[in-house]
Amino acid sequence: MCGIVALIGSREAAPQLLEGLRQLEYRGYDSAGIATVAVEAGCIPARLHCLRAEGKLVNLTARVEAQGAPGLCGIGHTRWATHGKPEERNAHPHLDGSGQLAVVQNGIIENHRVLREELQAKGVVFKSDTDTEVIPHLVARRLAELQAGGLLASGSLLLRAVQEVLPLLHGAYALAVVWAQAPGALVVARKAAPLLIGLGEGEFLCASDTPALAGFTRTILPMEDGEVALLTPLGIELYDAAGERVQRTPTLLSGTEHVADKRSFRHFMLKEIHEQPETAALWVARHLPEPTVGAAAPLVALPLDAGLLDGLERVQLLACGTSRHAAQVGAYLLEQLAGIPTDVFYASEFRYAPPPLSAHTLTVGVTQSGETADTLAALAMEQERRRQVADPAYAPRLLGITNRAESSLGRLVDQVLDIGAGIEVGVAATKTFLGQLLAFYGLAFALAERRGGSINGRSPEQRRALAQQLRQLPQQLRALVDDHDRRCEALAHRFAETQDVIFLGRGINYPIALEGALKLKEISYIHAEGYPAGEMKHGPIALLDAQVPVVSIAVPGTVFDKVLSNAQEAKARDAQLIGVAPEGPDTELFDVVLPVPEVDELLSPLLTVIPMQLLSYHIAAHRGLDVDQPRNLAKSVTVE
Ligand code: F6R
After folding, report:
1. Could you tell me the pLDDT band of residue 330, with boundaries at 50, 70 and 90?
2. How far is the CA of 585 from the centre of ligand 1 (A)?
3. Considering only Cβ atoms within 10 Å of each terminal Cβ, which end of the chain, N or C, has fewer?
């Protein structure tokens, strides 16, 4: 949700800033901009070149190529609009009145209105509707006061002014500031929004996320909450919120998965759907050890501390969007497989209406990006309110399920289950959803084994049989993805003009119906609803006619017959029926069958989700839409 980059060093900044923004464009693509500082003929103040363009990054790139943005230091931004329409005047960077100071920001300054009014009362003229614009005005005014007191312009002075302004800002932010009077300095700061410093040779690149750094350096210094840094080509000065100097050792980015590459696929989303067999194969290799005869080896190998899981009585899952759908499947598994009571919450709701505290409770934050503001805030609140209780039974136990172990989530929770799906660029989550599901299978198995003789949940023999079936998953997924890629492409034209689609599922496949509807909505802009199939007759059935397709997930198990009956009810209202179901006499009522192999019902979501993803993808692609960057959305939602 907005991406920022900032570079200081000894080479032209603009190309690297644009490349960094290209890698961050998944975070927002309403507009983009850069500001560079160029010393011309040795003159100070230097000249600030600020170029901005509405729309995607290509528009900005063309402008930079045409007009030039010289300088060895600069900042950049790709925007997902919060305050102010996606127009050029609201694009970042924002400048102070003199045009000498520029700021990019990711986050929300919650008290911007009050600050704006105070500044306007002092004669400041605003050029945008954004919350961010208060920052350059506040910093510039503080700099003017310090200079009026006799202090000379320098990087240290800029640092001091930013440090003195930050306490005035309420909310969450990551920001970068450059000043034409201190052309060899860059100041960056973060509070509850991500910011990483990449260490190059005689140069530093800061960015909201690792993809922007991957081609630049593998040595990174993630900034902590409240920290401010002054960067010059010679080094970093890092300070905590109290203004104390901080020394911290940089870490190394691991693997090559941080680099985004579409390979030969038309869209990242399609590539990522096709990568799911590998996501599963990696999970099987890491967590499902081959059974050894006679040995009491665990069914799953999950690197979790006993302190998190011992004596658990309850689990609560916090998540948003697609991650919440994974959590809903997870709750089903934790209850049905491990026999442990589990609640799922929208993170954005939990924070403002938390349930009464329960003892011996594991709280799991599920977020592929590890940066979703609502999920982080809900987890932090839960941690804090549990810390206030003296009884150790209520002590916080926090687990994160994420694709970004190095994210803010990773630093907040006690332990992380890294789904290791590799970078996902398509805004619509696909392979990370599968990875989250697999993490929940692992967690449910681990808890079931730990609880051994629990009266609820599946027996050890049933669990062993399930684990055995799970080993087949990578091959099943390979066949399924290839098959449904063709089938869904051939089917897509039938839905090109459709206005509404209903997705039905029951039990463990109800969240998959929700996920199918969400995928379709977000990338094809077709209205879709997911319902528990049995609920349809309590209202939504009124929507059905020949124009409304119904996608029904009907897999053998506890509710197979019931779902088929619910599908019959839709057929009786002339709905076109698409069944995600095994082929056979039972499923002949469907107009189209998207076949899935028969597996234990508890494992079926891992397969039924594939036709959901591919149907949505091909409908959106057939409609000629921007599948990877759907309107109004962003990959990482770092505002509440
Ligand atoms: C939908 C989608 C979103 C995210 C949601 C939470 O395809 O990707 O609904 O699931 O914004 O994001 P994370 O998982 O990063 O917390």
Report:
1. very high
2. 38
3. C
